[in-house]
Amino acid sequence: MLDDFIGSGSNVMMKRDAFAAVDGFDESLSNAQDTDMWLRLATLYDFIVVPKVQILYRISARSMSSNILGLEKSNLLVKELF
């Protein structure tokens, strides 16, 4: 629960109706918008894993992904919601 189990939203495919069913991203969560949405989607839909590399992921020093304290704070907020 303290890490994004999808890894990168760049490799996710879903129907527009599924995105709308969970009202998209919660923009009040600074670093865990995607994790929150994946959890809400998981309560309604099954996920299927594609077991091969789909994308390459780059982290820069100023990216949200490199802000460990921000990620932890936001993920803890998401955990409280579930």
Features:
37% helix; 82 residues; single chain; mainly alpha; globular; 3 helices
Write up this protein.
This protein has three helices and no strands. With 82 residues, it is an all-alpha fold. The chain has one domain (9-81). The model has no long low-confidence stretch (mean pLDDT 80).
How many β-strand runs? 0
The total count of helices amounts to 3
Biggest sheet, in brief?
none
Strand content: under 5%
- Shape category: globular
Element pattern in H and E: HHH
Mean pLDDT: 80
Instruction: Output the structural class.
Output: mainly alpha
Number of folding domains?
Answer: 1
Write the layout of secondary structure elements.
Layout: H1 16-21, H2 33-42, H3 68-81
In brief:
This protein is an all-alpha fold and 82 residues long.
